[in-house]
Design goal:
The complex is a heterodimer of chains A (135) and B (317). With 135 residues, chain A is of the alpha/beta class. Chain A has helices spanning 21-32, 46-55, 70-83, 102-108, 120-133, and strands spanning 8-13, 36-39, 60-65, 90-95, 110-114. Chain A has a five-stranded parallel beta sheet with strand order 2-1-3-4-5, sandwiched between helices. In chain A, helix 2 (46-55) crosses helix 3. Chain B is built from twelve helices and eight strands. A seven-stranded parallel beta sheet of chain B has the order 4-2-5-1-6-7-8, with helices on both faces. Classes of the chains: A alpha/beta (135), B alpha/beta (317).
Chain lengths: 135, 317
């Protein structure tokens, strides 16, 4: 008698970005794909995101930002996670992120960076890949 | 596992979060953790907040947290949302409305999915609430979706239940008739600034005239916090009035009984499912359809097989 335990994903929007239609679409797609999604809403601070991720013991953190402040804010999240000793969470980033910034985010630990228009199927595939490689 | 429990008792948040994850989706725990969980005495109040989607439960919880913190309490919250009927996933969106408490060291919020448990609760919910107790949170608030008689397990688990209703759902009467009100200690009619809310209060009042238990109605406006301090005050008073040794012992017993029942039902369902997929079924159906045996006979054969399977599992433990 073995119940499959769904993976838990935190989807958070940091900074002042107020657009959440994309995020709302994404979280439903994630739920339909079998994930437990903890949506933290818009305009969250890195501290709020990290504390939530720890308390909810999530497997994945997906950060979204459309206002361009990704470098500092995403970096701050990565930094806080490190300070808290959280090492086994998959980090994903999404938003209006120029190509040139992707290597920097990768170096911070973000496994995939999705730009606007990235199809949900691509996100789901990447997610599955990351999670199964950690089993 | 015991180290985890020691750590969480000392205030280690990650240990608490990890312990909750180890309880897993269905609440089946390792026996060492189970022993620790049984230590819960029933002395810490558990308050259930339930009601239909959109009534304002999370918003109310958020406001209650503010006031409970002002009273110097460390509060634990378990927020339960339904698992999707089609996938195994869930949208755990209650936290969105409580994010201002995210970085408060004296608040711990955990989001859980129901995993198909029709009572609106799972053993995981129970275990997480107990873990919050062990970690020193007091009270423990449990938020669940409740729309009718199926989602009333919170009543057997919580010391006090607040049913939150809000105007704007044409079928409020249906909810009332569906038995949701029966589990309430307090009915909180939210969005009381809207005119429809007063009508709802009247409808609820009429409905409650028929019941024998004393159920209070409180009008609130959760977003602005209107009426929330009063609601909290009533909760404290009711809590004090009920806090007797026998009440605690009986609450603990009820929780354990509920746990045993849920686990037994789950096990039986699994065993039945397994047996129904077995090779004998086709033959039994053939016999049934040509009149060679009765339905009762088929059922008793089924039961025998399922029991044998349960016995096998118990022996394997």
């Amino acid at each position: 008698m073995n119940a499959h335990t769904p993976k838990r994903i935190l989807i958070g929007k940091v900074g002042l970005d107020g657009h959440d239609r994309g995020a709302k679409f994404l979280i439903r797609a994630l739920r339909d794909a079998g994930y437990e999604v903890i949506y933290t809403g818009i305009r969250r601070t890195p501290e709020q995101i990290v504390r939530t991720a720890i308390d909810e013991d999530v497997d994945v953190i997906g950060l979204s930002l459309l206002s361009g402040a990704h470098n500092e804010l995403f970096a701050r999240v990565a930094e806080l996670l490190k300070e808290e000793g959280v090492e086994d969470v998959v980090l994903l980033a999404g938003g209006t992120i120029p190509e040139k910034d992707i290597p920097h985010l990768a170096a911070l630990g973000f496994r995939h960076v999705f730009t606007p228009g990235a199809p949900i199927s691509e996100i789901l595939r990447a997610l599955q890949q990351e999670l199964s490689s950690r089993e | 596992m015991n180290e985890l429990v020691d750590k969480l008792r000392q205030g280690d948040r990650r240990a608490l979060a990890r312990a909750m994850s180890s309880v897993g989706a269905t609440g089946h725990t390792e026996s060492s953790l189970e022993v620790c969980l049984r230590e819960s005495t029933g002395q810490v109040p558990w308050w259930g907040i339930t009601g239909p989607p959109g009534a304002g439960k999370s918003t109310l919880l958020d406001a209650l947290l503010v006031h409970l913190r002002e009273h110097g309490r460390r509060v634990g919250v378990v927020a339960v949302d339904p698992t999707s009927a089609w996938s195994d996933g869930a949208l755990l969106g209650d936290r969105v409305r409580m994010m201002r408490h995210a970085v408060d060291d004296d608040v711990f919020i955990r989001s859980l999915a129901t995993h198909g448990h029709h009572g609106g609760l799972s053993d995981a919910t129970l275990h997480c609430a107990r873990l919050l107790e062990l970690a020193g949170y007091d009270p423990v608030l449990i938020e669940t979706v409740g729309v009718g008689q199926n989602e009333v397990e919170i009543r057997s688990v919580a010391d006090l239940c607040v049913v939150v209703l809000g105007p704007g759902y044409g079928d409020d009467i249906q909810l009332i008739k569906a038995g949701l009100l029966e589990i309430a200690d307090i009915v909180a009619v939210n969005k009381c600034d809207l005119p429809e809310a007063q009508r709802l209060v009247n409808e609820v009042r009429e409905e409650l005239v028929a019941t024998e238990r004393s159920i209070e109605i409180v009008a609130i406006e959760a977003k602005s916090g209107n009426g929330v301090p009063e609601l909290l005050q009533r909760l404290f008073e009711l809590d004090r009035a009920r806090r007797t040794e026998t009440a605690e012992a009986s609450r603990n017993q009820q929780r354990s009984l509920g746990e045993i029942r849920r686990r037994a039902e789950f096990s039986c369902q699994q065993a039945l499912r397994h047996v129904l997929a077995g090779p004998e079924i086709e033959q039994w159906i053939a016999e049934l359809n040509r009149g060679a045996c009765s339905l009762e006979k088929v059922i008793s054969r089924l039961a025998a097989l399922a029991l044998a399977e349960l016995q096998q599992e118990a022996d394997d433990e």
